[in-house]
């Protein structure tokens, strides 16, 4: 049997090139070698959007469209919305009974988000318990591997600690999942910062290609290159960072690099070359996305089938949990 993998993504709306270069490209590769469960984690979204949840369902649809368009195959992996499998909420409750409060209060991610997100009241029980639900998501499927970037590998340690603590009280039910390190290339947004919807600097997978070019055309480059005749430095240019991810033509990149440093080409020429590669990449993806946009029944069938497969595994896990705890059922 293939080793099992679980990963999830919060429904924040249409996905961007950073998602494509990072999570999605890796997920597509993993579905050939692992038994993969990929979930749109809408309960996680509610933890921060509880005061205004009306966009969550629509955002879930946008995410699934981008997933399928980018190459996730429902014949090779299980794709589903978290809340369609009620055992996610049940295992979260079970784990919350044994997770020490101090573990959650010391979580650096929790501290950072409380400090930095000022426009929402995140002082709730559920937001503090976010890592417990995350652990439940993973352990519900007894996933042996969780794909993350190297900078996120520490986040899995709390999941392993919760598994160990539950196993200590009730017997060896859960494996301690290992990190499946996956490459996470740097994809800056149009302002040079990390590409993010919240920054308003993203280049979306489903972006109209004319609009994509307009964003790319005005994108920041080497801040020291003020005029066409000034030599540039690709090493500090956000456009060049995107070239490194999405331009597969090594010979062209060598020429562009040399041309920039010698002021032999202008920034607009470099951007046009990048746009050509993005156009070739995104056209078939967007064509596939339009197919699913026009076939809502097919989209719903994929989610129901994925949730059905996930639920079969989740029910077996919860039967073990309930029996180990000793509940009457």
Tag the structure with descriptive keywords.
single chain, 329 residues, mainly alpha, Rossmann fold, Tyrosyl-Transfer RNA Synthetase, three-stranded parallel β-sheet, two-stranded parallel ribbon, 5 strands, 54% helix, elongated
Explain what you see.
There is one protein chain. By secondary structure, the protein is mainly alpha-helical. The chain has two domains: 4-187 and 295-325, 3-Layer(aba) Sandwich (Rossmann fold); 207-289, Tyrosyl-Transfer RNA Synthetase. It has helices at 17-30, 42-49, 56-70, 87-96, 101-105, 108-116, 125-128, 130-139, 156-170, 209-217, 238-246, 250-261, 267-293, 296-325, and strands at 4-9, 35-40, 77-81, 145-148, 178-181. The strands form two sheets. Strands 1-2-3 form a three-stranded parallel beta sheet. Helix 1 links the parallel strand 1 (4-9) and strand 2. The mean pLDDT is 94.
Provide the fold topology.
Elements: E1 4-9, H1 17-30, E2 35-40, H2 42-49, H3 56-70, E3 77-81, H4 87-96, H5 101-105, H6 108-116, H7 125-128, H8 130-139, E4 145-148, H9 156-170, E5 178-181, H10 209-217, H11 238-246, H12 250-261, H13 267-293, H14 296-325
Parallel strand pairs: 1-2, 2-3, 4-5
Helix pairs in contact: 3-13, 4-8, 4-14, 8-9, 10-13, 11-13
């Amino acid at each position: 049997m293939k080793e099992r993998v679980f990963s999830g993504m919060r429904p924040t709306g249409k996905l961007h090139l950073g998602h494509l270069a990072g999570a999605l490209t890796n997920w597509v590769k993993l579905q050939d070698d692992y038994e993969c469960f990929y979930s749109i984690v809408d309960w996680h979204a509610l933890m921060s959007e509880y005061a205004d949840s009306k966009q969550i369902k629509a955002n879930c649809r946008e995410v699934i469209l981008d997933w399928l368009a980018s190459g996730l195959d429902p014949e090779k992996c299980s794709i589903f919305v978290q809340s369609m499998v009620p055992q996610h909420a049940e295992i979260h409750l079970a784990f919350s009974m044994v997770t020490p409060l101090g573990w959650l209060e010391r979580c650096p991610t929790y501290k950072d988000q409380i400090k930095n997100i000022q426009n929402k009241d995140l002082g709730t029980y559920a937001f503090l318990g976010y890592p417990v639900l995350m652990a439940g998501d993973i352990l519900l499927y007894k996933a042996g591997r969780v794909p993350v970037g190297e900078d996120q590998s520490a986040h899995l340690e709390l999941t392993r600690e919760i598994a160990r603590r539950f196993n200590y009280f009730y017997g060896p039910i859960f494996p301690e999942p290992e990190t499946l390190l996956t490459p996470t290339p740097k994809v800056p947004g149009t302002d040079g910062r990390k590409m993010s919807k919240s920054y308003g600097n993203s280049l979306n997978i489903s972006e109209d290609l004319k609009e994509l070019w307009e964003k790319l055309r005005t994108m920041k480059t080497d801040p020291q290159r003020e005029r066409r005749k000034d030599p540039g430095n690709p090493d500090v240019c956000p456009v060049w960072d995107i070239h490194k991810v999405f331009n597969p033509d090594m010979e062209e990149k060598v020429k562009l690099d040399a041309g920039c440093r010698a002021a032999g080409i202008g920034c607009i020429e470099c951007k046009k070359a990048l746009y050509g590669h993005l156009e070739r990449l995104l056209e078939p993806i967007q064509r596939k996305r339009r197919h699913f946009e026009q076939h809502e029944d097919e989209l719903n069938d994929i989610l129901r089938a994925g949730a059905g497969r996930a639920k079969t595994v989740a029910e077996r896990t919860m039967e073990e949990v309930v029996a180990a705890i000793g509940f009457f059922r």
